[in-house]
Amino acid sequence: MYDPEHRLAWPARGYRWATERLYHEFAWAYDAVSWLVSLGRWSGWRRQALAYVGGPRVLELGFGTGELLIEMAGRGWQAVGLERSPAMQRVTARKLRRQGLRVPRLCGAAQALPLAAASLDAIVATFPADYILAPGTWHEAARALRPGGRLVIAGLFVELDLPALRPGYSSATQRIAARLQALAAAAGLALTRHADETARVRAPVYVAEKSGAAGGPGA
Ligand SMILES: C[S@@+](CC[C@H](N)C(=O)[O-])C[C@H]1O[C@@H](n2cnc3c(N)ncnc32)[C@H](O)[C@@H]1O
After folding, report:
1. What is the pTM of this model?
2. Ligand 1 site residues, Cβ closer than 6 angstroms
3. What pLDDT digit, counting tens, does each position of 157-166 carry?
4. pLDDT tens digits for range 36-75
5. The CATH number of the domain where 34 resides is what?
6. Can you tell me the distance from the alpha carbon of 94 to that of 55, in angstroms, rounded to the nearest whole number?
7. Is 165 helix (H, G, I), strand (E, B) or coil?
8. Strand pairing class (78-83; 105-107)
9. Which atom belonging to ligand 1 lies closest to the Cα atom of 111?
10. From the CA of 87, how far away is ligand 1's center (Å)?
């Protein structure tokens, strides 16, 4: 969890450096590493987002190794992926080829979407990198979503309901949640939080909805 608003101490800089290596040189190891660090929970946490995605025209930001793109294509949705890392693109292309699936993919940044205004029912970002805390990403999302469309975010941070860890860790997660709220408000989106509060380890889902009447084929 990286907070660009906060001055980076050396552990945060080291964490950021390591995650960048994982998105590039070691993209081939991403699935195994994410499974290990989450003790097998990663794909379940990622899939939670789909329950909040309404409509078939969906853009996935930072699709990584393409697991959610495959899942969405399997549901018959008109999924499109956007990913900045060429190495992640290659891993995903191999998976799609093996499964005989064709999913349009764009290489680029979430802060500059090469898509028409109001052309999407939903945008989904799971375990997003720091692009999700950039105002440009939110303005682009608000532009590309149709009225009533949603930006769905899962896994921005994991909450640990463990008393020993609570004070420092939860103030960091609260700071990120407050930043999301501010970004959503500035982009004119209404933000809601969804989580299984009974789980001791949980990855909340945030849904940012664009106001206006739902319309188009995804309504
Ligand atoms: C933590 S991974 C998440 C991958 C996948 N969504 C998942 O649930 O496992 C973050 C991904 O976002 C990509 N990324 C980072 N910055 C980006 C940006 N500005 N625009 C698009 N993708 C970006 C990285 O290359 C990486 O693949």
Report:
1. 0.92
2. 23, 34, 46, 61-64, 82-85, 88, 109-111, 126-127, 129, 131
3. 998 877 666 6
4. 999 999 999 999 999 999 879 999 999 999 999 999 999 9
5. 3.40.50.150
6. 27
7. helix
8. parallel
9. 19
10. 11
